[in-house]
Write a structure and sequence with these properties.
Its EC number is 4.2.1.17. It catalyses: a (3S)-3-hydroxyacyl-CoA = a (2E)-enoyl-CoA + H2O; a 4-saturated-(3S)-3-hydroxyacyl-CoA = a (3E)-enoyl-CoA + H2O. This protein is α/β, with parallel strands linked by helices and about 260 residues long. The chain is built from twelve helices and ten strands. Helix 10 runs antiparallel to helix 11. The longest helix is centred in the N-terminal third of the chain and has 16 residues. About 35% of the residues are buried. It binds hexanoyl-coenzyme A. Hexanoyl-coenzyme A binds next to helix 2 and strand 6.
Length: about 260
Amino acid sequence: MEYQTILVEQRGRVTLVTLNRPQALNALNGQVLADLNAAMVAFDADPGQGCAVVTGSAKAFAAGADIKEMSAQGFADMYGSNFFAGWEQFARTRKPVIAAVAGYALGGGCELAMMCDFILAADTAKFGQPEIKLGVTPGMGGSQRLTHAVGKAKAMEMCLTGRMMDAEEAERSGLVARVIPADQLLDDALKTAETIASMAPLAVLANKEMVNAAFEMSLGQGVQYERRLFHGLFGTADQKEGMAAFVEKRPGNWTGK
Ligand code: HXC
């Protein structure tokens, strides 16, 4: 597959996706969206791939949606085309996707990172929703996902002032899983992805699905949903293998069945 705005590389069972519009600090235009969605569909469909890492450059994960592409659009264009709705496909990727963020993750860049399953941040990372400075609001889910991640007080302050949050504050606030020295970010993200990709594939899907259910369901429904998925895994060969491997003190040999 040929991509114009991203680089895609398979490293064993890990797919590494690098945003590659350095001249625009990886601003997310329609082509980036099309490329990312195509890459994620291919990743999901490939049984040889278990986890993806999405990253940018040392200076910018992504500096936002492409302001130059949007600036002349009117309401009819935006509403008529349901602008940004295509990002829902990215967010529906079934296998885990890690965001490895160095430098700026602003506006749509922060929103893209939050669409991934978790964020690993370089100590240089800066997160923000500065759309208010452009006379608009987040449009790719930022007001919702940021509020889920860091709570109302910080999300509201960031959306209303456009101020950036550094990596340390982002970790303290629950926006990122871990902060890593910038020169080790990619190695760490790839190792983390390898760990995930080495697990039983159906259990990986089920774990991702049930954690995400926590954002859509009441506690009671979510606990029930978890239990049913858990029960379902007892119909898989990999559950028998995983538990036998534990008893026999050896690593599991997964079939994805
Ligand atoms: C298009 C962008 C861009 C963006 C940067 N560039 N961000 N182009 N869309 N979001 C371009 C610049 O125009 C410039 O191109 C080149 O990238 C380098 O950027 P500089 O500004 O020269 O770099 P620097 O001075 O280091 O400043 C870095 C920065 C700044 C602080 C990240 O670029 C910035 O504030 N960018 C915009 C951040 C933002 O507002 N993001 C939210 C966008 S709206 P040239 O051709 O001049 O060299 C959004 C959500 C949309 O994401 C929701 C609905 C609107």
